[in-house]
Design goal:
129 residues; alpha+beta; OB fold (Dihydrolipoamide Acetyltransferase, E2P); 5-stranded mixed barrel; 3 helices; 31% strand; globular
């Protein structure tokens, strides 16, 4: 019988991913692997009618990627209270396409995200102070 040996880096990466896979299997949230946010269900009516959610505090994050063609920004962010979303890295659509040129990867930002017609969208974005 022939034995198969994985390179050391592949084995280390596989072990490092085990907690992530367990978290995802347990119903975790996130988009790091390109998964959808369907686990959030239909959130179009949630939080939109509450004044606190519409005018709540800003969340913080760091820009990890800017996709000008798709008009999207990837943020590594802290908790987003109005969406009841824990800290993670995920992709957002943008309300203002000017942000795609104004900001750069690595920028620390404060932002507001909302569920707009079923898509998580940055509705406010400003440099962190």
């Amino acid at each position: 019988m022939k034995q198969i040996f994985l390179p050391r880096t592949a084995a280390v990466m596989a072990v490092a991913l085990l907690p992530v896979l367990a978290w995802a299997a347990a119903g975790g949230h996130g988009n790091a692997g390109g998964t959808s946010h369907s686990s959030h269900g239909d959130m179009s009516s949630q939080h939109a009618s509450t004044p606190a959610a519409a005018h709540g505090e800003l969340s913080n994050g760091e820009i990890r990627r800017i996709d000008r063609d798709q008009k999207k920004i990837t943020l590594r962010h802290g908790e987003i209270k109005n969406l009841e979303m824990p800290a993670m890295t995920m992709v957002f659509q943008v309300k203002d396409e000017g942000w795609l040129e104004r900001f750069k990867v690595g920028d620390k930002v404060n932002f507001r995200a909302e569920n707009v017609n079923g898509a998580f969208t940055l509705t406010e974005l400003q440099p962190a102070q």
